[in-house]
Predict the structure of Interferon induced protein 35.
Amino acid sequence: MDEKYNMDQLLSEAVWEAETRRPQEDTLRWRQKLQELCSLKEEQERLKLRKEELKQLQTKQRAHQKKEVPFPVPQAVVVFQGQTKKEKEVSETFFSNLRIHYPLPGSSALVTFEDPKVAKGLLQHQEHNVILEECRLRVRIQPVELPALTSIKVLTWLCSYKVLIIGLPPALKLSEDQLLDKLELFFSKPSNGGGEVKMRELLPGAAVLGFTDDKVAERLANIHHFMMTLGGAEVPLRVFPYVSGDIQEMEISRCSVPHSVLVVNIPDVLDGPDLQDVLEIHFQKPTRGGGEVESLMFVAPGTQGLALFTPE
C-alpha cells in the first residue's frame, strides 16, 4: 500500500512540475520522466499478476501430488491382531506372520499352559519349590517377555517400471526358472500389452517383472486382468503396480506371553529327560499352583536353547 502511494505521489509531482515549467526543453524532459514512471508502474502491476499466477500454479501442483494412483494398488495379506476404534485418526496396527526367536539359558524350562490364569498365578511368587521324593528343588519363576514391534514408519513409492503379478497356483509342477520363463514370454508380447522384460523375481504365490519401458508397466496395470495357460489350465492373473518401501522409523517394546513362564535356576540332580518328566508332572498339579501343560521345553545345564514363537 505504501509503495503504491509513493508511486502515485511521484506521478502527481511529475505532472505538476511538467505543466508548470515554462521552458520547452524542461517540459520535454519532465514528460520523458513521466513516461518512465508510467512504464515502471505498468511493470509493477504485471509482476503482481505474475506472482498471483505462480501461486495458483503451485497450489494446483500440490493438489495433484495428493491424488490417488490412477490404477488399482493391491492390499497386503496380513493377519490382523490389533484393536479398532471408532475415531477419526487411529493408527492402524497389524502383524503379519511373525516368527520370534527367544533364547533360553541353561538349567531352565519354558512351560506353556492352556489356561493363562495358571501362568499368572505362578508369577505371583517368584520363588517356587518343586517337590521330589527325597528333596525339594528351589527354582525361580519369571515372565516370558518377547520383543514386539509396536510401531513402524515406512516410506513407500511406486516403482514405475515394475509390476506385481498375483494369482499363481501353488501346486504347479514347474521349476522357478520354468515359471518365470513362461511369465516373461507371456508379458513380453505386444499383443498382451507387454514389452521387453529386464528383471524378474518369484515370490510366494506371486511374481515381479520389470520392463525396459515404464509405459509397459503402467499399461499392464491398467489392463489388470489376464488369462494365462499354466500347467494345461487357464489361470486368471491380476497385475498391480509394484510398491517399494524403506523403513524410516520403528519402535520395539517388551510384550509378555500370557500362557508361558520361564523356570530358571533348576538344580542339576537328574538326567535331562527324567528332570523334564518331573517338571511336567509337577506343573500339572493344581495343588502346586499348576494346570494343564500344553508344552514344556527343558534346557540342560551348560547348554542353551532357542524357542520359536509364532502367531496362534
User: Anything to note?
Assistant: The longest helix spans residues 24-65. Residues 7 and 41 are 7 Å apart (CA to CA).
